[in-house]
Amino acid sequence: MLRRNSINNPLAELPVQTQRLYSALEVFRCTYSSREKPIWFQAPKRDVLLKKIGFSKTDIDIGIKKLVQSNLLQIQKQQNVRWYRLK
């Protein structure tokens, strides 16, 4: 059963901490989405805010890498601002 769910939901194969990070980034998406491209969002003070809810710097770095590798997150940098897109 887990195998079938992971095919439909690639997040299911990721560690719980990475799943929590994905959910936290969804909050940023709702709050800081771009007017021109609503699927892209910023995450101002990302690390500071995520640390307040229990993420360490290492958790954030590893989670971001895993989300990008799993094709669940894209990051673009424009004019020294990082833009994120969750899939």
3D architecture notes:
The chain is α+β, with helices and mostly antiparallel strands and 87 residues long. Helices cover 49% and strands 14% of the residues. It has helices at residues 2-8, 16-31, 46-52, 57-69, and strands at residues 73-78, 81-86. The protein has a two-stranded antiparallel sheet. Strand 1 (73-78) and strand 2 form a beta hairpin. It is globular.
How many distinct helices?
Answer: 4
Report how far apart the termini are: 23 Å
**What is the string of helix and strand elements?**
HHHHEE
Radius of gyration: 13 Å
Number of distinct beta strands: 2
Mean pLDDT: 88
Could you provide a short overview of the structure?
This protein is of the alpha+beta class and 87 residues long.
Feature tags:
87 residues; alpha+beta
What is the topology?
Layout: H1 2-8, H2 16-31, H3 46-52, H4 57-69, E1 73-78, E2 81-86
Antiparallel strand pairs: 1-2
Helix pairs in contact: 2-4
